[in-house]
Amino acid sequence: MKKLIRIGAAAALTAAASVAAIGPAGASARHDRQPPHGGHAVFVQTDESDGNQIVAYERRDDGSLADPVAYGTGGLGGALDGAVVDHLASSGSLTYDAGHRLLFATNAGSDTVSVFGVRGRRLVLRQVISSGGTFPVGVTVHGDLAYVLNARDGGALQGFRILGRALVPIAGSARSLGLDPTATPEFVNTPGQAVFTPDGGQLVVSTKANGHHLDVWRVRSDGRLSTAPTVNTEAGAVPFSMTFDAAGRLVVVEAGTSTVVSFRLHGDGTLAQVSSVATGQRASCWITPIGGLLAVSNTGSGSLSTVTPGRRGALAVTDLDTTNPGTIDADASEDGRYLYVQTGGIGTVDVFRRAGGALVPVGSTTVPGGVGGEGIVAL
């Protein structure tokens, strides 16, 4: 077994400065060249309190992971009160922007966001910037616009423009979520995810048990959000992770009832339910599209439910697989062949292969420092 190679933040920043000194012509040539291994890589965030890291793996043709390299983010990880297997209790804490070939990592313990350039599985730290709030737990991107979701002090959103290889704050873009900062336990009362709609015209935030809301903000032409959101309340549901299906419907995992629900999202920000299905598992929290399927992480059961959208959007559970303990965040490879699932109980990534309407276990990899860590991106 090959040794884990660690690259610290200082070395990464030095490399970034060296690349920047080459100038625009060199940067253009590097952008156009095909990355090694066709970009087949998996990145896993450790969220360690004494120094957050991204562990980069080569993704082999059979889906297995090899040759880990650890990159310091230049920031600190953190853990919400009460969190055990999921320190951030969120989705989107590690986000890849394919258009700019950038990887955004949230440093919850130091209230910053790290920006990495991506080439294959090689990362170059380009920037560490304030998140514009307290305890950042997610990033969502559309075009050259990025919004960071901050979890503490009632929750907040901060907008940025992506210019070159860096984030630039948008003046006047900060929006408070107005959640109760004293609600306990903390890890179920902080926001779960922020996500742009496919057309970028709206931004949706899930508030989990803190109001049980799906808040929909209108995105203005200047990149700022509407003054206030349209609030959709799902009493007792604990809306957590979200995605959009192929028809543009919003699909939400409601952790309070372990139910997957799809909605039509209207232009005025209101939601109309289309379908729902119970997983029959405990603490269903995360949802990840893979091909035409939806993979749902059942944290309390240590399992993965496969949900299939049928005719007219009807949802059905079509498969169930066991994972290692503490099933949390997940991501699918860009070719839709493999699913990579973090399990926070023992700090592994469990690998599954898509086979028709089911997922087939491939193997598991232990992530150094990965217990309780959240954030995963597969290319």
Tell me, what is the CATH class?
Mainly Beta
Average pLDDT, all residues: 91
CATH architecture group name: 7 Propeller
Percentage of residues in helical conformation: under 10%
- The number of E-state strands comes to 30
CATH superfamily: YVTN repeat-like/Quinoprotein amine dehydrogenase
Main-sheet strand order equals 1-4-3-2-30
The multimeric state of the shown protein is single chain
CA-CA gap between termini: 23 Å
Main beta-sheet annotation: 5 strands, mixed
Classify the fold: give the CATH topology. Answer: Methylamine Dehydrogenase, Chain H
Rg calc? 19 Å
Which structural category do the helix and sheet elements fall into? Answer: mainly beta
Low-confidence stretches: 9-38
Q: Report the sheet-strand fraction.
A: over 45%
How many separate domains? 1
Global shape: globular
> How many individual helices?
2
What layout of secondary structure does this protein have?
Elements: E1 5-7, H1 9-22, H2 24-32, E2 41-45, E3 53-59, E4 65-72, E5 94-97, E6 102-107, E7 112-119, E8 122-130, E9 136-142, E10 145-150, E11 156-163, E12 166-169, E13 175-176, E14 193-196, E15 202-206, E16 213-218, E17 230-233, E18 239-244, E19 250-254, E20 259-265, E21 271-278, E22 284-290, E23 293-298, E24 303-309, E25 315-322, E26 327-332, E27 338-343, E28 348-355, E29 358-366, E30 376-378
